[in-house]
């Protein structure tokens, strides 16, 4: 809160409170391996649609929107699951089969707020140069952390690309978790152990783990 009040988080970095809106059920035919979804969660058991890839399968279904909370998949309640657990369920659905999503729309109110004028009391530097982000966890308090470095951002992008190849779902939050697990590791074996400790439920194949390790290393080498 001190960092918020001190202007170290820019006014452009909106913090949204997800207030439940109407519930909706959507039938989806999984005609492609990739749905085109990026999923995140709030650290307390609620998974949300963070991004929809333009031109993807889900992009053609206008009833599914960014910000929707995923309540259940084919009647299976996923409240309490982390975003990567929800991604794993969606990836495991059979191709060319229909499935049902139960979604809850968020209440929308920010459209009524006009952009802040540049003549405001805070300096432009404080408004546009915030480099912090708030991270919510299932255990422990929320913390304000530095956003990923340029090297980490490139690594996250490479790992996210691999997630789409192997799992059919883009998930930058999961990619960031995997890059974080690779910090301080000296070889693929140490990295594999760290992944098992952090994301053991996913049971990533050895080939995927090795490719992720190489992607993180490639991102670091590009800086030199």
| Helical proportion, percent range | 25-40%
Strand portion: 15-25%
User: What would you give as the CATH superfamily of the largest domain?
Assistant: PDZ domain
Unreliable segments of 5+ consecutive residues? 11-16, 110-114, 116-131
Name given to the CATH architecture of the largest domain: Roll
Coarse morphology: elongated
Explained architecture:
The protein has 224 residues and is of the alpha+beta class. It folds into three domains: 2-13 and 113-146, no CATH class; 20-106, PDZ domain (Pdz3 Domain); 150-221. It is 33% helix and 20% strand. It contains seven helices and eight strands. It has helices at residues 2-5, 83-92, 124-128, 150-167, 172-181, 188-199, 206-221, and strands at residues 20-29, 37-41, 47-52, 69-73, 76-77, 98-106, 132-135, 143-146. The protein has a four-stranded antiparallel β-sheet with strand order 1-6-4-5, with no helix packed on it. Strand 2 and strand 3 (47-52) form a beta hairpin. Helix 4 (150-167) packs across helix 5 (172-181). The radius of gyration is 19 Å and the shape is elongated. It comes from Pelodiscus sinensis (Chinese softshell turtle). Belongs to the GIPC family.
């Amino acid at each position: 809160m001190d960092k918020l009040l001190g202007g170290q988080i820019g006014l452009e970095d909106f913090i949204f409170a997800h207030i439940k809106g109407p519930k909706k059920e959507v039938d989806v035919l999984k005609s492609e391996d990739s749905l085109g979804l990026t999923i995140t969660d709030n650290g307390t058991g609620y998974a949300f649609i963070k991004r929809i890839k333009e031109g993807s399968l889900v992009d053609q279904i206008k009833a599914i929107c960014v910000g929707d909370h995923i309540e259940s998949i084919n009647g299976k309640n996923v409240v309490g699951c982390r975003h990567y657990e929800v991604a794993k369920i969606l990836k495991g659905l059979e191709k060319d089969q229909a499935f049902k999503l139960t979604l809850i729309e968020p209440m929308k109110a920010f459209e009524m707020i006009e952009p802040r004028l540049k003549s405001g009391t805070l300096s432009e530097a404080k408004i546009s140069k915030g480099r912090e982000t708030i991270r919510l966890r299932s255990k422990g308090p929320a913390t304000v952390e530095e956003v990923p470095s340029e090297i980490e951002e490139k690594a996250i992008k490479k790992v996210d690309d691999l997630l789409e190849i192997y799992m059919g779902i883009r998930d930058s939050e999961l990619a960031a978790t995997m890059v974080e697990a690779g910090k301080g590791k000296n070889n693929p074996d140490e990295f594999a152990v760290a992944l098992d400790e952090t994301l053991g439920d996913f049971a990533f194949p050895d080939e995927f783990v090795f490719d992720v390790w190489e992607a993180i290393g490639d991102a670091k080498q590009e800086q030199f």
